[in-house]
Amino acid sequence: MLKVDGTDLARHIYTVHEIIPVSPELSAHGGDMMIRYPIWIPGDHSPTGPVTQLAGLSVHADNRNIPWIRDTVDVSTFHIPITAGTKMILVDFQTLTPVSSDVGRVVMTPDMLNVQWNAVCLYPAGYFTRDITVSPTLVLPHGWQYGSALRPRDGGNTGDSITFQNVSFDRLVDSPVFAGRYFRQFDLTPPNGPPVSLDVVADSPNLLAAAPEQINAHRNLVLQANAVFGSHHYEHYDFLLALTEELGRIGLEHHQSSENSGPRGYFTKWKDTFPARDLLPHEFTHSWNGKFRRPEDLWAADFNTPHRGSLLWIYEGQTQYWGYVLAARSNLMTQPQVLDALALVAATYDGRAGRLWRPLVDTTNDPVIARRTPLSWRSWQRSEDYYSEGELLWLEADTLIRELSHGHHSLDDVARQFFGISNGSMVTHTYRRENVIAALNTVQPYDWAGFLHDRVDVVTPMRHWPDWSVGGTVWFMARSQPPISPRKRKC
Question: What is the set of domains in the chain, with CATH numbers?
Answer without folding.
Answer: 1-181 (2.60.40.3650), 183-491 (1.10.390.10)
